[in-house]
Amino acid sequence: MMYSSRRKPVLYFKEERRFLSGKCTIYKLFGLCMVLVLVSLLWLQLSCSGDMSSMTHEDLRGPQPPPPPPCPADGQASAADDPSWGPHKLALVVPFRERFEELLVFVPFMHRFLNKKKIRHKILIINQVDHYRFNRASLINVGYLESGNDTDYLAMHDVDLLPLNEALDYGFPEDGPFHVASPELHPLYHYKTYVGGILLLTKKHYRMCNGMSNRFWGWGREDDEFYRRLRKAELQLFRPHGIDTGYKTFLHIHDPAWRKRDQKRVAAQKQEQFKVDPEGGLTNLRYQVESRQELVISGAPCTVLSTKLECDQSLTPWCLLG
């Protein structure tokens, strides 16, 4: 009898029933198992060969790593190309000596703070490495001279003072020096002529003052003398307004119990500290940069200038103690 092709599965079923209809022996069961195993292996081989033939060349190479990120030129525009950051660039000058635990906090904090305000900047750490007493004013003078032609204004900035109020202005002080850490906001110093902590000036205005006096070895008084220089140069001093955070505007991270300030007044220094230095400043500064290191602290770049100051002991014998 002839069967159509569509009925072959039925014929196969009938033949399978006839095969099982006889006496069921161990040999027949074994043979049936072998047939099923062979059929399964054949089906598996055909399936695998079909899958392999359908794989592309890329599939055979296995999973590939993700493509590299685009170059900066292909990605978002950098701050240098973004007009919303403005045309000016700040040199954040930090007079420094051996206060590394404060530096580790200061650099990343200020870098984030200024970036959030879209202030182009570079942070200069002027590290005094000589054996003389600390001279904050001379180090700021060094920062001015070493700040490069790519910056057009300065921030004279203490390493232990962090701005907490984002409304504080660090922009270009075109109209005159801008005292960010004003007496109404500074956590420690509240007298009217105080200009320390954080002071912004254009390079032009700083040069008009001949910088700061180099006569102040040890801690203090250099800011008071600089206030007189601002007045002599007829520069209008500006301070923040509309800041309602009062003495909580800044975080002062200096620990006086851990780091004692050098407040000694030696010999004639007691009298000289209240006098105006009519000639000293940028014009008589003597120093040597021992090294210049580019560092990154928690993702924030800064430049450390290890600097040796020079002292004319015939003019300022108090640059050394004892």
Structure description:
The structure is a single chain. The protein is of the alpha/beta class and 322 residues long. The chain has a domain at 88-261 and 288-313: Spore Coat Polysaccharide Biosynthesis Protein SpsA, Chain A, CATH 3.90.550. Helices cover 30% and strands 17% of the residues. It has eight helices and nine strands. Helix 4 (100-116) links the parallel strand 1 (90-96) and strand 2 (121-128). The longest helix is centred in the first third of the chain and has 29 residues, at 26-54. The radius of gyration is 39 Å and the shape is elongated.
Summarize the structure.
The protein has 322 residues and is α/β, with parallel strands linked by helices. It contains eight helices and nine strands. The chain is elongated, with a radius of gyration of 39 Å.
CATH class of the domain at 88-261 and 288-313: Alpha Beta
Strand content: 15-25%
Major sheet strand order? 5-6-3-1-2-9-8
Number of E-state strands: 9
CATH topology group of the domain at 88-261 and 288-313: Spore Coat Polysaccharide Biosynthesis Protein SpsA, Chain A
Sum up the overall morphology in one term. elongated
Structural class: alpha/beta
Would you identify the CATH H-level superfamily of the domain at 88-261 and 288-313? Spore Coat Polysaccharide Biosynthesis Protein SpsA, Chain A
Largest sheet: 7 strands, mixed
Summed over residues and divided by their number, the pLDDT gives a mean of 82
Q: Mind telling me which CATH architecture of the domain at 88-261 and 288-313 this is?
A: Alpha-Beta Complex
Tally of separate helices: 8
Low-pLDDT residue intervals, each spanning 5 or more residues = 1-22, 52-77
State the helicity in percent bands: 25-40%
